[in-house]
Specification:
Layout lengths: L2 E7 L2 E7 L8 E2 L5 H14 L19 E3 L9 E3 L6 H5 L14 H9 L13 H9 L15 H14 L3 H13 L14 E2 L5 E3 L19 E2 L1 H12 L8 H7 L6 H6 L1 H4 L3 E2 L4 E2 L13 E5 L3 E6 L4 E7 L10 H17 L2
Antiparallel strand pairs: 1-2, 1-13, 3-8, 4-5, 6-7, 9-10, 10-11, 11-12, 12-13
Amino acid sequence: MDSVTLMARGSSVEVQVSGEAERDTVFRIASITKPIVAAAVMLLVDDGVLRLDDPIGRWLPELAAPKVVRTPGSDVDDVVPARRPITVFDVLTSRAGWGFPADFSLPAVQLLFAELEQYGLAPQQLPAPGEWLARLSRIPLLHQPGETWLYNICSNIQGVLVARASGMSLPEFLETRIFRPLRMKDTGFSSDRLLPAYHANGEVLDPPDGQWSRMPAFPSGAGGLVSTADDWLAFGRMLLDQGAGLLSPESVRLMTTDHLTEQQRRDGALFLDGQGWGFGGTVDVAAIDPWNVPGRYGWVGGTGTSAHIVPSTNTVAILLTQTATEDPVPPQWMRDFWLQSTIFQESASI
């Protein structure tokens, strides 16, 4: 397996590489894109351009008056009006009403997958943002705004929201406001330095000149970035340093705080594995496994990636592979890395 693992505490950094990878190898980081795009939204909150209680319809009029299926199992034409507008806070906490629950067979979820989400690991097949929003607007919400945590789609909404509210494309905004200030020189939506990516069965998922080799029409805030271990380390250290002058400490606090109710955590257990959700990533709230530390924040990616910070121990743990997990339940080799990172934290504290 081609991989890079990086564990850091303060100035102490341990890196291991395997296969054809090197420390500076660029990986398709998939859903560990999500915390970065959530930080972009919070930059606009810090700027005063967005407020958490703002209806997103102000910038995304296509989503200003959504319909909701009468019950989660209802047909997609059996709908009622949303009780209230979707807010920026709803989108940041993945509670807008669109996304994936545990039951993928529900009619509204099937429609969402058919129209948009089947292209999750094929960014070149997604339509441009305007058409993407138009398609989404024709899909009813599975739940009322704010009611239930649902996976993935809200991070893509965040990316379009950043572009509309800032007047810049998402790639331009991220480059100007996050990547350049943090010296994340190898992070973007495409690269000519990629290794092949593989399905879990060993078949090629994406060749070096494939889906991530050129800029897509739709820069996905849910999983479109490529990056390196050291670039994500710079982002993680910024969060540990209370924003490091890039984000406000309050924005970092909001990003890394669980905002879900106990029921919402239970409903999202397939993805959350018993933990909570901040903005763009999980927040550990229960010591279910050895690596669960209260306040641990981060996420995993479907191309075989994982990135977390632990504020209480000032550590960052990053695993980058190009072997797709293709299952909401993390594979054993990823869990082994998390256990290894726990041992690193303990040894670094001695």
